[in-house]
Amino acid sequence: MSTQSIIKNIVIDESNAAEIFINALEEASKASETSVPNPIEYEDVKREDIKKFLGAFVK
Fold first, then answer.
1. What is residue 10's three-state secondary structure?
2. Angle at CA 55, nearest 5°, toward 50 and 59?
3. Roughly how many angstroms between the first and final C-alpha of the chain, as a whole number?
4. What is the pLDDT of residue 4?
5. What DSSP letter does each residue of 32-48 carry, written as one string?
6. What is the rounded distance in angstroms from the CA atom of residue 8 to the CA atom of residue 4?
7. Rounded to whole angstroms, how far apart are CA atoms 27 and 7?
8. CA 40, CA 44: separation in Å to the nearest integer?
9. What pLDDT is attached to residue 5?
């Protein structure tokens, strides 16, 4: 996504639309503070295991 779009000026003529926009920004800010990314499970692989795995393809 291009970051150029976040440096644009916007004009909101209606006070109701401005209030809705500000509320949406505030809610997005709160959501980003409380959201936690899903942890990714992983397992360390030893050098010997890699050699064994790749050796199966080389033979």
1. coil
2. 170
3. 44
4. 67
5. HHH--PPPPP-----HH
6. 7
7. 20
8. 13
9. 66
CA dihedral 27, 29, 33, 34 (to 10 degrees): 20
In sequence order, the 6+-apart residues with CB closer than 8 A to the CB of 49 are none
Output 27 or 1, whichever has higher pLDDT. 27
Token reading at 50 = 């890699």
Number of domains forming the structure of the chain: 1
Domain assignment present for residue 23? The answer is yes
pLDDT at 53: 86
* Domain, as residue range, for 21: 1-34
pLDDT, tens digit (0-9, with 9 covering 90-100), for 10-47: 888 998 999 999 999 999 888 877 767 778 888 999 99
